[in-house]
Amino acid sequence: MATVSQLKSARPSHSGKTQTLIELAHAGVTFQSRTGDALVAVEDFNLRIQDGEIVSLVGPSGCGKSTVLRMLAGLQQPTTGDIWIGGGRQRRGFSEVAIVFQRPTLLPWLSVLKNVLYPVRALRRTTAADRSRAQELLEVVGLGDMGARMPHELSGGMQQRASIARSLILDPKILLMDEPFGALDALTREDLQLDLLDIHASTGKTILLVTHSINEAVLLSDRVAVMSTRPGRLQELISIDIPTPRSHETPAHPAFHHYAGRIRDDIFGPNARSRA
Known about the structure:
The chain contains 9 helices and 10 strands.
């Protein structure tokens, strides 16, 4: 089993040749109401994400961000278009994709370590290597001494760290995150944002993050995908050219305000900043 140091990988360079790991081509979802009316949630959505990238998905409330995430997770079948993961059409499974929700959803009757191991237990008998891997992941997320604790003994931020460790136990290629820090207080949220960058540096996973926070998207992302109002389409894809590693001081970088303003204009219109 790989050690933490062996898991380390550099943040991808967009100037070099990279592999497309996720592709949505003309993907769309239409829901049918009980009265027979059609609601087009996402329409003609096109996006490619490279191996090792962090991409944030932002847009107006109700634009279909979570629907896109659910399509990639296999929780929602596209009505139109195609999805490829790792070069395979409609290819899914726990080894391909893991998802972290807004709330931790830890099992209260299991210890933190056993919660991290739960996906393994659901698929096969737990081995010593699995337990070692789980402990390693707890170290990566800063909970190395918390494995024997019960979920109620942890703060909200710690519980979310444990959820992230659990999502990585089967070594998925892709980590989908649906407002993972939205239920946390502001200070904890800031800490976990930087923790996520550390986790990304330690694992090299491809991350797609749904967030309502423009600043969070700029801080964390290699690129930000801005969606239009419903039916959600890709309105603009913005590369974030801000030096790494990023820190609590990054929002003071002049380019940070440029990117945040550009995204805000896309979502709210060019007069949004003057109204704020």
